[in-house]
Amino acid sequence: GLSQYSSDPRTEWDLSAYSTREQVLEAVKNLRYKGGNTFTGLALTHVLEQNLKPDAGARLEAEKLVILLTDGKSQDDANLAAQTLKNLGIEIFAIGVKNADEAELRQVASEPLELTVYNVLDFPLLSSLVGKLTRVLCTRIKERSHKESAGSTVKDTPVNTGPQLSPTDLKISAVTSKSMHLAWSPPLKPPKKYRVVYYPSKGGTPKEVVLEGAVSSLQLSNLTSHTEYLVSVIPVYDAAVGDGLRGVTSTLPLSSPRSLRVSELSHNSLRLSWKAAQGATHYLVLCSAAPDGAED
């Protein structure tokens, strides 16, 4: 399976999309590069929520590996998202190109880092990693599968088990120009934590709040006015992640001054008056000569 990301991750194809090597190689050939920002934390969350689910082709008995390929430093908290995956028994390999941050790659990747972290100076050099990475991946899968059959504990796939693990009924209320209130109905089995991720739909830095599992509401503040926000509420358990709740809502525009009046005109002065804008602390008044032909 493959997902590509910038500020908004997108699934290019699921685990169940292709069944032969030739089909995968053809899909790679037809892949179109997605430019933009580097929100790695959001991308890892997308993989967990969208790509590692049974309905996307994830098999319960299969080892779960994520290979992250990035050419820059993440603009959000990649480490927190990566830790969630690793806590669920998902192994992460991190490959950096060009401007990737080596320290961040080492934070995100699973142990042992000498097998899971790679960094090259440019894209053509990625070909030099293929042989080694293939051998390492296959060996790790065999090792982990052997441990599982020998009775060692390997955590199950994070699967959605419906209402038992997933909250419902997200309500967004008390929306102002700078804030909104979220509330939801908890699942039958309270989670260990909730991850609440929110960001502007037209691109912007995703922000994240982590709540204790007993909490089922949150006030978001310091938002940008007149902006559409995407909100996700994701329940996290010791060995699973429930389906996230999603919502979209727009903050209100800032109120405007109204009823502008001009009075007390003289040859070099005039007086302006208006109805106040709610919440305004200052006003900026701009005045310029009207262009020829426009109304004075």
From TrEMBL:
UniProt keyword annotations, A-Z: Extracellular matrix, Secreted
Entry keyword Secreted: yes
Main location: secreted
Compositionally biased spans, kind Polar residues: 150-167
Origin superkingdom: Eukaryota
Gene3D superfamilies xref list: Immunoglobulins, von Willebrand factor, type A domain
Annotated segments matching region Disordered: 147-168
Domain (Fibronectin type-III) ranges: 166-255
Domain VWFA: 1-133
Cell compartments where the protein resides: Secreted, Extracellular space, Extracellular matrix
Protein's UniProt name: COKA1 protein
Name of the encoding gene: Col20a1
